[in-house]
């Protein structure tokens, strides 16, 4: 229990536990090292390794690996290029937004254990996850890697994940510390967060996973925080993490996130990582900085001691050999399916269309490309390489066998040319301009003249060809792609000024004489699995210089328009429409290195869904994303399922759930707003490329919706089931609580339906009498329970003084105010019991 000073009402600072024997072993090794040897522990000797030191009993390198939900395929030691080995497949679990939707801490712990066994089998020591940044904007390209908008949900799940992972002798690495809630200009954006919001929201999941979970390593974000890069940030790394929380492990840079040797060392960074050939600050320059007195040697001693402490914890010192672990086992694959099934959220089932009845399903119309896209290989540092991946379409085919006919129409449902999907792109940013993401995209060489002459002024990489160019310059865009299918491809370029387009050096579009804004197009016959080089040459007009490239693959050359969909739907007894995001860059895509331009679904999908629902209101709409998406047709859709980037077994899990083999139990880990402007970052105009002020303070997600009385489209914590549950009013063990005491809350939950199922009980605390403005309600505890039909179980929650506390900025401490508090228990942040009132004195 937290200790309380009865006079001041302040709580003592939380402290991480230190393994005394590991610390002793680390100190013994440190005492034997020269300065040069100490420094050799503080930077990678390869892209994912710290060198072995046999002279002190460290016979093997310390291996890092991405990512939060799988063990990433091997990477070249000197660059970020794939190593292209044959034996680096791993089980790909659902992403962390899916895990968060399970609201299941036991599942999260097993998630960590499973990932740890896979990492051990691949010889990895530090797994770069979990990610615990919060969802502040729906546009963040990496929301799918994180665990929603609430710090308690993210913190409890992260703590369980860390316990599971580190039980396998694999260190967790919490990321991205801190204030990295957007990908837009992530390597330079300056984040300004007031101290209350910082402590109560953005640092809290880190604190919980370190103090309660014992996480051994932390990764800095690329961004600046209050003017200083996170990798140089004394306040975050030294004052809070190491001194206040007593964190004994090491802080590692995100790959390429260090900018200065002295600032990094004095700012609390312990290990520099980057592409192997690009590591530069914590090698010889650090030795030089010590020798000339810019960095005290005792600072280097502490940095090296932290690395050695983690190695001692993992058994890397003294010749210990871990058990081999396991990879791609039937048990791991079954677990991947279990996580996927527990994460699926039934958002609407107004007419009880679900579950589908197998005996009544003879002809299914499946619509939308998301039904048959594999996502495990997307996501850059979160990419996976599974031995197989079951898409929803394949899952339906496997589940139904020959008992039903399935017609599939992938779309598009509008005449559009789209950007190149990342999965078909072979060109990699070898200059690593995005600090370790190894992004795929167009290489853009810019010349100082309008005729592609002179010495190039820059060579950069862009995810997409959709860019405005300065006048009196010219550029050559080039990219290698692998054609996904045989047939005729359509290419379109919208351009201001002259343009030429080449495929493997052959000229296909010659508009170099253009003196206006126009659209040029061509077609070309390409062969499946053949790699082609596409090149665009562009010279902008004096007053504007936009350039936008798009293509259509053969299967998309002739789109299926809404009226045709309606016609095709009439002969089907079941219609399933799959829409949503994909992993990668661009419109309706999610991925590292960029944010989405909007919450919109793929072009043409909204119109198609609207037309289809008018003709077939029994259509089941299935959205797929790791972030909120817009749904302008929602009032017409009685049946809606949300599905995540659900790993290699996701399609099998979804098919089983649609037909009632599994009962949906997922709950939203974030609010889905009606529009982007209903979220604080965008309502207040505090989202941008240079400096972002979190002006909304502690009011994000459901806290903002409650405060502003803006109803979300779907509330935080919402999710339906095929059965029904009743929750009894909460019973409190006391209604007047002295400072320093815990509060016990009891309730009962009953499965009142005719099917086994799981419900998540959510406990919220409110306070209106504090010295500062607090949210109307804050999640403080949750519990997932599985019940048979008619079964009742008792649930008990315990709140500690910390649960009642807020951060007192003047005192720089957690404070508990006397006064009245309310307790609510329910199924979501908007579906709650009548509040029970307590008085704390």
Automatic annotation (TrEMBL):
<dbReference type="GO" id="GO:0008422">
    <property type="term" value="F:beta-glucosidase activity"/>
</dbReference>
<dbReference type="InterPro" id="IPR017853">
    <property type="entry name" value="GH"/>
</dbReference>
<keyword id="KW-0326">Glycosidase</keyword>
<feature type="domain" description="PA14">
    <location>
        <begin position="418"/>
        <end position="570"/>
    </location>
</feature>
<dbReference type="InterPro" id="IPR036962">
    <property type="entry name" value="Glyco_hydro_3_N_sf"/>
</dbReference>
<dbReference type="Pfam" id="PF00933">
    <property type="entry name" value="Glyco_hydro_3"/>
</dbReference>
<dbReference type="InterPro" id="IPR036881">
    <property type="entry name" value="Glyco_hydro_3_C_sf"/>
</dbReference>
<dbReference type="Pfam" id="PF01915">
    <property type="entry name" value="Glyco_hydro_3_C"/>
</dbReference>
<protein>
    <submittedName>
        <fullName>Glycoside hydrolase family 3 C-terminal domain-containing protein</fullName>
    </submittedName>
</protein>
<dbReference type="InterPro" id="IPR013783">
    <property type="entry name" value="Ig-like_fold"/>
</dbReference>
<dbReference type="InterPro" id="IPR011658">
    <property type="entry name" value="PA14_dom"/>
</dbReference>
<dbReference type="InterPro" id="IPR001764">
    <property type="entry name" value="Glyco_hydro_3_N"/>
</dbReference>
<dbReference type="InterPro" id="IPR002772">
    <property type="entry name" value="Glyco_hydro_3_C"/>
</dbReference>
<keyword id="KW-0119">Carbohydrate metabolism</keyword>
<dbReference type="InterPro" id="IPR019800">
    <property type="entry name" value="Glyco_hydro_3_AS"/>
</dbReference>
<keyword id="KW-0378">Hydrolase</keyword>
<dbReference type="InterPro" id="IPR037524">
    <property type="entry name" value="PA14/GLEYA"/>
</dbReference>
<comment type="similarity">
    <text>Belongs to the glycosyl hydrolase 3 family.</text>
</comment>
<dbReference type="Pfam" id="PF07691">
    <property type="entry name" value="PA14"/>
</dbReference>
<dbReference type="GO" id="GO:0005975">
    <property type="term" value="P:carbohydrate metabolic process"/>
</dbReference>
<dbReference type="Pfam" id="PF14310">
    <property type="entry name" value="Fn3-like"/>
</dbReference>
<dbReference type="InterPro" id="IPR050288">
    <property type="entry name" value="Cellulose_deg_GH3"/>
</dbReference>
<dbReference type="InterPro" id="IPR026891">
    <property type="entry name" value="Fn3-like"/>
</dbReference>
């Amino acid at each position: 229990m937290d200790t309380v000073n009865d006079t001041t009402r302040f709580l003592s600072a939380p402290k991480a536990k230190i393994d005394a024997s590991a610390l002793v072993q680390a100190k013994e090794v440190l005492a034997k090292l020269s300065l040069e040897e100490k420094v050799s522990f503080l930077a990678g000797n390869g892209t994912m390794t710290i060198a072995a030191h046999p002279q002190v009993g460290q016979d093997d390198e310390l291996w890092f690996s991405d990512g939060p939900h799988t063990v990433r395929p091997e990477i070249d030691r000197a660059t970020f290029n794939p190593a292209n080995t044959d034996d680096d497949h791993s089980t790909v679990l659902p992403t962390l937004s899916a895990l968060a939707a399970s609201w299941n801490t036991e599942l999260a712990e097993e998630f960590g254990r499973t990932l740890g066994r896979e990492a051990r089998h691949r010889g990895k020591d530090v797994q770069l996850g979990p990610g615990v940044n919060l969802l502040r904007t729906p546009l963040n390209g990496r929301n799918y890697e994180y665990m929603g908008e609430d710090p308690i949900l993210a913190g409890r799940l992260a703590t369980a994940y860390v316990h599971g992972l580190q039980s396998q002798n694999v260190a967790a690495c919490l990321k991205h510390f801190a204030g990295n809630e957007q990908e837009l200009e992530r390597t330079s954006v300056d984040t300004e967060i007031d101290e209350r919001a910082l402590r109560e929201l953005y640092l809290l999941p880190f604190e919980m996973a370190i103090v309660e979970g014992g996480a051994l390593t932390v990764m800095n974000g690329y961004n600046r925080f209050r003017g200083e890069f996170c990798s140089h940030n004394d306040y975050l790394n030294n004052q809070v993490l190491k001194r206040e929380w007593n964190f004994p492990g090491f802080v590692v840079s995100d790959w390429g996130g260090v900018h200065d040797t002295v600032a990094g060392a004095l700012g609390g960074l312990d290990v520099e990582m980057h592409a192997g050939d690009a590591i530069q600050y914590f090698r010889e320059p650090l030795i030089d900085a010590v020798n000339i007195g810019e960095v005290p040697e005792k600072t280097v001693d502490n940095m090296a001691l932290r690395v050695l402490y983690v190695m001692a914890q993992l058994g890397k010192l003294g010749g210990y050999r871990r058990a081999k672990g396991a990879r791609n086992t039937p048990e791991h694959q079954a677990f991947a399916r279990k996580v996927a099934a527990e994460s699926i959220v039934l958002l609407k089932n107004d007419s009880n269309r679900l579950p589908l009845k197998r005996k009544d399903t003879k002809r299914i119309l499946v619509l939308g490309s998301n039904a048959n896209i594999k996502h495990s290989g997307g996501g850059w540092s979160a990419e996976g390489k599974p031995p197989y991946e079951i898409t929803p379409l394949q899952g339906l085919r496997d589940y139904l066998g020959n008992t039903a006919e399935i017609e599939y129409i992938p779309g598009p449902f509008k005449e559009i040319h789209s950007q190149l999907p990342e999965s078909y792109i072979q060109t990699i940013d070898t200059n690593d301009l995005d600090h370790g993401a190894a992004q795929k995209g167009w290489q853009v060489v810019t010349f100082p003249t309008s005729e592609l002459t002179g010495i190039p002024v820059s060579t950069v990489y862009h995810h997409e060809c959709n860019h405005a160019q300065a006048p009196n310059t010219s550029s050559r865009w080039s990219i290698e792609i692998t054609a996904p299918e045989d047939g005729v491809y359509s290419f379109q370029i919208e351009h201001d000024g002259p343009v030429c387009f080449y495929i493997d050096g052959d000229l296909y579009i010659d508009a170099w004489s253009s003196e206006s804004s126009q659209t040029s197009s061509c077609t070309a016959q390409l062969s499946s699995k053949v790699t082609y080089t596409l090149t665009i040459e562009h010279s902008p007009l004096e007053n504007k210089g936009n350039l936008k490239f798009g293509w259509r693959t053969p299967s998309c050359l002739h789109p299926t328009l809404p009226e045709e969909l309606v016609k095709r739907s009439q002969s089907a007894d079941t219609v399933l429409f799959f829409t949503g995001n994909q992993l990668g860059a661009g419109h309706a895509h999610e991925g590292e290195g960029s944010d989405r331009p909007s919450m919109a679904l793929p072009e043409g999908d909204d119109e198609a869904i609207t037309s289809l629902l008018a003709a077939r209101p029994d259509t089941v709409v299935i959205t797929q994303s790791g972030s909120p998406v817009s749904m302008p047709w929602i009032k017409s859709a009685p049946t809606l399922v949300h599905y995540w980037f659900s790993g290699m077994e996701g399609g099998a899990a979804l098919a089983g759930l649609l037909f009632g083999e599994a009962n949906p139990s997922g709950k939203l880990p974030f609010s889905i707003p009606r529009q982007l402007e209903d979220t604080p970052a965008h309502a207040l105009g505090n989202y941008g490329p240079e400096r972002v002020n979190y002006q909304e303070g502690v009011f994000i997600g459901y806290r903002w919706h409650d405060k502003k009385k803006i109803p979300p489209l779907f509330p935080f914590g919402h999710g339906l089931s095929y059965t029904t549950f009743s929750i009894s009013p909460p019973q409190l063990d006391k209604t007047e609580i002295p400072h320093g005491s815990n509060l016990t809350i009891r309730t009962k939950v009953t499965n009142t339906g005719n099917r086994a199922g799981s419900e998540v009980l959510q406990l919220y605390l409110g306070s209106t009498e504090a010295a500062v403005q607090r949210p109307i309600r804050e999640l403080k505890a949750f519990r997932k329970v599985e019940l048979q039909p008619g079964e009742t179980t008792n649930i008990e929650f315990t709140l500690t003084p910390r649960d009642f506390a807020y951060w007192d900025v003047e005192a720089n401490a957690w404070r508990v105010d006397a006064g009245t508090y309310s307790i609510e228990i329910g199924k979501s942040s908007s579906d709650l019991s009548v509040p029970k009132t307590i008085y704390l004195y």
